[in-house]
Amino acid sequence: MAERLIWLFVATLLIGTTVESVTIDPINPVVRADETVRLMCRTNGSPIKKCQWEINGDLYELGEGQRFQPFGRLQDGECGIQATMSETENGPWTCHVFKEGSSRAEKASTNVTQLVLPNITLRPNAEPITVMAGQETEVSCLVEKARPAPGILWKIGDREIDSINRQSKSTPLRDSTQITIMDTLKYTFEAVDHNQVIRCLTVGPWLTENDPHEATAHLNVIFPPQPKEPTTLYGYVAGQAGDVVVNFTANPSPIRVYWKVEDDSQLNVVPYDGPSTNDRFEVYELKTTDQSAFEAKLRVRSVSESDARRNFRLFVESDLNGEQHVQEYIVRISMSAAPLQSGGVSGGGIAGIIIAVLAILVILAALLYARNTGQWCFAGGRRTVGEGESRARIDEENPGDIVKEKEGKEGPLKGSTENLNLALATDGNLENGNNGNLPPSPTKEQQQNGGSVSPSQDGKDTAV
């Protein structure tokens, strides 16, 4: 009984697989108005006896020259449909397939969406959008009558804004498959965002570069004069004129700018309080280098050592919606040359140092190798041979060989550096008519006797 139940269960699964053997392609396509939509239903290879299509609840027979035309080969298990897309075709499409030898219809469905590009606007709807630096501000993007619902991105310039700062609300339109989206960005703008472009972009694989897909506006960020660390200017020459310059940013333009140099005397900057000057300093008119960038310049008529010990202070006052802001900038001057940038050593200088160090290491290694192998003579004079040390002589039987003896042991050791030095020291004797044979080295007793001469075995004297 249990086996029969198992076989019935397996048969049911197989029958279900056969019923669901029809596939449809593509899945959920997005088609533009007046474009041709093409869908294909396929069996698992079984020939098709009959095929019908249901569109938005209406059943259609396919035929050449009709609104909905067939394509594909029924004998190959293909049942395709093609038609020009319109608003009435937006919705579900289902194929009903009758296979050869079967009276039961099998089907597959998908949803066909006719593309509707939305209208995109920003709120507040202004150009530019004015915001306060350092305060959280809401800017909204309204995407109206979209189909299908697109994704939304926010950017300032080319910098994408994190989605955690956003809230989105979607509202389906009544009696329509279109949708309206209100996406609100909550963001704290900074001075660096001034005059940047804020962008709300709709995204989706069905969009092209030529489709209207974004709304933009420039940002007018209100911010006070931005602070800067005290700076030092270099290269001034005693007795010559020198300019002290401060560049700063502010929006809107400051309401007052003035210098203080010595004794807290105030030197006003044009155009705020009229020109100010004396026999030591000359004040230039404030220069606008950009919409929110300014340059203030003070000329020292004749630079002195005392000028290098004082602070040149610039004060900038601004009014932001009735709130007063004062920013102080401090500048010092120096008669020294400007220090090197990036730590004072360039990449080429570092490379040169490395090469020099490597060259020195190679030379030291060569010198140590030569000394250890006895190829060069480093001894400046005679060295007394101590206990356990090697003694050098020239082999009497083979004058060209240099041998080495170990005190208290028999047998020569060849290749000694001391042998080489001894041979070099006796070259003069060979050139003076000696027969090329050298007597054996003096013993310790002879050295202790003050270098006395003793007869050798052949009757000749040997010098120590």
Can you offer a commentary on this structure?
This protein has helices at residues 2-19, 347-373, 417-425, 427-431, 444-448; strands at residues 23-25, 30-31, 36-42, 48-55, 58-60, 69-71, 78-84, 91-99, 105-114, 119-123, 129-132, 136-146, 151-156, 159-160, 166-172, 179-188, 197-203, 214-222, 231-233, 242-249, 256-260, 266-268, 281-283, 287-288, 293-300, 312-320, 323-333, 390-394, 402-406, 454-455, 461-462. It is mostly beta strands and 464 residues long. It folds into four domains: 18-114, Sandwich (Immunoglobulin-like); 119-222, Sandwich (Immunoglobulin-like); 231-333, Sandwich (Immunoglobulin-like), CATH 2.60.40.10; 390-441, no CATH class. The chain has a five-stranded mixed β-sheet with strand order 2-9-8-4-5, with no helix packed on it. A five-stranded mixed β-sheet has the order 11-18-17-13-14, with no helix packed on it. A hairpin with a 2-residue loop joins strand 4 and strand 5 (58-60). The longest helix is centred in the C-terminal third of the chain and has 27 residues, at 347-373. It is elongated and about 110 Å long. Mean pLDDT is 80; it is low at 4-19, 378-397 and 399-464.
